[in-house]
Amino acid sequence: MTSHDDHPARCPRCRYDLSAIPATWEVACPLEGVCSECGLVVQWCDLLSPRLAVPRWFFEGDNRGRFSFMRTAVTVLMPGRFWQGVRMVHPIRMGRLAAFVLLLVLMTYVSGFALRVGQSLVIAQSFGPINLSVVLVMLKVVVIWPYYYWTAPWHFSLVIWPVLIAVVFAILSDSLHRSRVHWAHVVRATAYSMTFVAAACIAYTLTSLCTSFIWAYGNWATWGWVSPALDWAVSILMVVAVLLWWASATRRYMALERWWAVWLTVVGVSGLGAFVLAVWRHYGLVTW
Ligand SMILES: [Zn+2]
């Protein structure tokens, strides 16, 4: 029998159960329908066989090909392409999403670790031969939290912002007119957006490693201003990428009618929240 016997045909956006509608078809089977709850135009073929047409590169897909983690992460960097391939009808696998984020965290951790080891070696070497006590101090810092020194408030707000977007989305989506979006879609979009945080951390690692080596062996006079400029470039690129990501997610993926209004509200409120948290932290009102 058809797949909707065990999986009721639900609206992909708001998850409202639409399985009563096919039962009313007597004369003909329409190709398209409209969700009575959120107004989304649905393709009945998508609802009745959602597993079809999941891209092979997609980490959540059942028939995913090899290297799907890396291929998915790279595709995230092209939001338009990502949301063209990944659609609301594709079943959301929370376990896979968690695995994706964990792998990103691991990648970020390894890159931070490499950065601290590299920097410590450069610094230690410029003060004399490396001995066991130097290595122990180094390990203490890098193992516990490799980004220990990465505590500038704007970096902090960059990391917290993508998470705040999800929180604001969850709070506002019910009150935004005709924007009923099931929370699972917000979780999916947020999980993949963490790729930008990881990419920024890795870019930061590369530029900082360059800085350390040039500090020790190269022409510091030139690099002295290049290093902060690169830092800014990475931060600005990340902000632009996250903005594009959510514009594409609300427009292409969630197919919201007034996507730009939802997008502006969500990124605006969460951006303000991240800024306030950063200022708060900067002035030592909280310590963590
Ligand atoms: Zn709906």
How would you characterize this protein structure?
The chain has 288 residues and is an all-alpha fold. The protein folds into two domains: 3-82, no CATH class; 83-282, no CATH class. Helix content is 63%, strand content 2%. It has nine helices and two strands. Strands 1-2 form a two-stranded antiparallel sheet. Helix 3 (79-85) runs parallel beside helix 8 (220-253). The protein is elongated. The model is unreliable at 1-5 (pLDDT under 50). The structure holds zinc ion. The site of zinc ion has 8 residues, from loops. The site of zinc ion (ZN) has 8 residues, from loops.
Rounded radius of gyration (Å): 23 Å
Number of domains: 2
* Distinct bound molecules: zinc ion
Q: Tell me, briefly, the overall form.
A: elongated
Unreliable spans are 1-5
Mean pLDDT reading: 82
Q: Could you say which structural class the secondary elements and strand pairing correspond to?
A: mainly alpha
The percentage of residues in β strands lies in under 5%
The biggest beta sheet reads:
2 strands, antiparallel
Q: Helix count?
A: 9
Q: Order of strands across the widest beta sheet?
A: 1-2
**Considering DSSP H and I runs of 4 or more, what fraction of the residues is helical?**
55-70%
State the end-to-end distance.
Answer: 56 Å
Number of strands: 2
* Order of helix and strand elements from N to C terminus: EEHHHHHHHHH
